[in-house]
Amino acid sequence: MNHSITVYILAGGESRRFGENKALYLFKDKPMISHVIEQISGVSQNVVIIGKNEKLYETFGYPVIEDLLPYQTPLAGIYTGLMNSSTEWNFFIACDMPFFSSENLLTLIEAIPKDKTDLEIIAPKTEQGIEPMAALYHKSLGPSIVENQKEIYSLKGFIRSRNHLLIDFKSSLPFRNINTKDQLDKLDP
Asked: 67-120, pLDDT tens digit by residue?
């Protein structure tokens, strides 16, 4: 089933704590980003990778765009996607969330209002709080990211400052991102 959303995979970080490009790091015999692609590509055919180097990701068969802003934060990646998008709603997910599933994405998509609304963000919420790295963002938010860049330092802060809807999820596992190799070694869901 295809939905009229664009999915952006954020792969532009420097992976400093991980020590190498975690998007391409092998997890269960395939690059970590492949786990994300497999889950979301069945929900939307509009998939774009936001990364620094197109050559690194060309084997995955999806367009790659570089960040439009000079700093590397999730908000910069979201801004880049929104400014390039042709769909009203856009799903952004970190490349290092191998346990996220298509069912999780469908749950978020089902919350998109059928009628025109001023809702700007639909984000998961778990016992850990807001999960901003796997959420739906409305295209109209693009300019506000640049306007508020000096006042809002975190993605969670940005979400709280906008008209948002939080969807409760029982487990935080789908939203767990991998920041270090030690975290990866300890994971065995």
From this structure: 888 777 888 899 999 999 999 999 999 999 999 999 999 999 999 998 878 999
DSSP per residue over 73-90, as a string? SHHHHHHHHHHH--SSEE
What would the two tokens of residue 32 be?
């970590």
Q: Are 174 and 99 in contact (CB under 8 A)?
A: yes
Please state, as a whole number, how many other Cβ atoms lie within 10 Å of the Cβ of residue 69: 15
Type of residue at 12: G
CB atoms within 10 A of CB 170: 7
Reduced DSSP (H G I as helix, E B as strand, rest coil) percent helix, strand, coil of the chain, to 5 = 30, 20, 45
Would you say residue 130 has pLDDT above 70? yes
User: Would the pTM of this model clear 0.85, i.e. be above it?
Assistant: yes
Tell the residue number behind the tokens 């008209």, with chain if given: 163
CA distance 169 to 108: 10
